[in-house]
Amino acid sequence: MIFRGEFSLDISIVIPVYNGEETIKLCLDAVSGLTIQEGMNIEILLINDGSTDRTKEIASAYPNVKIIDLEKNMGRVQARKTGAENAKYENILLIDTRIEVFNDLLQNIQKIGYQPLMAGSLNDEKYKSEYDTLLYLIRRKFYHPYYPQFKYAKELWITQDNFLKAPKGTGCLILSRELFLKSIPDIIEKDSSDDTAILKNIVFQNDTKILRHTDLNIKYHSREGNDVYSWINHRGKTFADHYLRFVNKFSILYFSTLFISAYLFLFYPFRLLMLIVSAIILTTLYLFEDHKDIFPVMKQLPILGFAFFIGSLEKLIKIIFKK
Fold it and tell me: What is the pLDDT of residues 5-51, one digit of tens each?
């Protein structure tokens, strides 16, 4: 843990990427344009996680970026681990390829003077797409009162008490290399819930608070088209990986819903259909903030919900048969 005023000026920026040709240029342009203060040393490590598209070709145009190739796709957590192990400096800044940083990022990190530190302002666009509308509204309810953070406070301390309710992620996170490597889960799989597991280990196992600060301001470029549904399917897998391995309120709700749905499907399929329609309507009424929200939510909820469910079921089957 680094307290205010004790922050080192030397940072290794670790960027994991797998088939990121759509956003890698935008990400590397932004990182390469960071304002570097006098006496500050940085390096940029791009971990090419077995990409099969033009990712490496695009990244090779940046002479200030060191590319480390993995022979095959190992998953984001393994790519980050490789980056941390090869980092020159003690502090590492994790950045995902869908993140566009602003040039004052390093100054703001220095000014805040605490780590582990994550971005608190992602410049979310509620109406960029129907998908973005639905996710924004879900986050508003799930992370209330912390989301969006600018309506709550500049600083959000993520602790053991508010861990489940606080918005969090590792898309832009700075911490010590030692703390990161200590916090990586023992089981590393491509569809592991790496964000939640790593952050949980930081907060609980290492008894360390994480600061989410709105002065750490970034732009997240959300997915579009079929990438959205693939990502939601993946989120279903990471949900199952983290929440369905033990008894908690989410696993109880999940298995109860699964059992009731299976029973109705076998014996009362029409009632199941009516139940699904009713659930969509009630969820829409619960989520919406404006009349403009109603159609996007009702349209996207069953599609994204199905993609999430299939992903969670695939992972659940994998967990069961592995045991």
Answer: 555 679 999 999 999 999 999 999 999 999 998 889 999 999 999 99
Cβ-based burial of 99 (10 A; exposed 0-12, middle 13-18, buried ≥19): buried
Strands 210-220, 99-101: pairing kind? antiparallel
Contacts for 205 with CB less than 8 Å, ≥ 6 apart: 182, 183
Helices 269-287 and 291-322: angle between axes, nearest 10 degrees: 120
Report helix, strand or coil for 104. Answer: coil
DSSP state of 143: T
273 three-state secondary structure: helix
Length of the chain in terms of residues written: 323
The two structure tokens encoding residue 286 = 């619960």
pLDDT, tens digit, for every residue of 278-290? 999 999 999 999 9
Domain assignments of the chain as residue spans, ordered by start = 10-127+143-220, 226-322
CB 174 within 8 A of CB 109: yes
| CATH numeric code, 10-127+143-220 | 3.90.550.10
Contact 319, 313 (CB under 8 A): no
Nearest to 85, CA basis, from 101, 100, 99, 74: 74
SS3 for 304?
helix
Q: How many CA atoms lie within 13 A of 37 on its CB side?
A: 14
